[in-house]
Every structure is written in C-alpha cells, then in structure tokens.
Design goal:
The protein is an all-beta fold and about 100 residues long. It has no helices and six strands. The radius of gyration is 16 Å and the shape is globular.
C-alpha cells in the first residue's frame, strides 16, 4: 500500500441511508475497503465493493473511505440516498469495566 498512513482513531463518520433500496443496475455506491488510512491511492491496486441493499438500509463508514457513485443503467428507477456526517467530539481515556 502506498501513501502516508492516517490516524486509526476515527473522529468523522459518514452515514448513508437508502430509503428505497439500490440494486446493481441502479448505480450503487462503490467503496474501496481499507482506503481510509491512506493519503494517496493507486486505482489499479484497489478493488471496489458495490453496496447493493434493500429499502431502509443504513450504512456507516469512516468519513475518509474512498467512495463514488456508479452508473445508473436502469431505464426508469432513480436511486435515492441521504448522507449524514457524524463527528466524535471526544474519546474517553478511561475504562468502563
């Protein structure tokens, strides 16, 4: 893997909500697992995972995960997705057990 490694404590998250579901022909979101820790990427080294899902699915990812939209090849079915950004204000420094 290339690039400068990033921190391993996630402070920003990305929440994607699919109210109507998303099939493979509707242009699902493609992600590159593990890419959230790198600064630079080489597209040839990163396999993509297409997120197909049913209605009401919520996907929670690291904010820096490489993601993109893919082409919607369905004739009459639009893909709907709502994105939310979440932020961790502090990380506890003590044990709870």
């Amino acid at each position: 893997m290339r690039g400068k490694p990033r921190g391993h404590r996630p402070r920003l998250g990305l929440v994607m909500y699919y109210p109507g579901g998303c099939g493979d022909d509707m242009g699902p979101t493609a992600i590159q697992p593990g890419s959230q820790y790198l600064v630079d990427k080489d597209e040839a080294e990163w396999p993509e995972l297409r997120l197909t899902c049913g209605a009401g699915t919520v996907v929670i990812t690291h904010y820096d995960l490489y993601h993109r939209a893919t082409e919607n090849t369905s004739a009459d079915r639009p893909r709907y997705m709502i994105k939310f950004m979440v932020w961790v204000r502090f990380i506890a420094t003590f044990r709870h057990f």
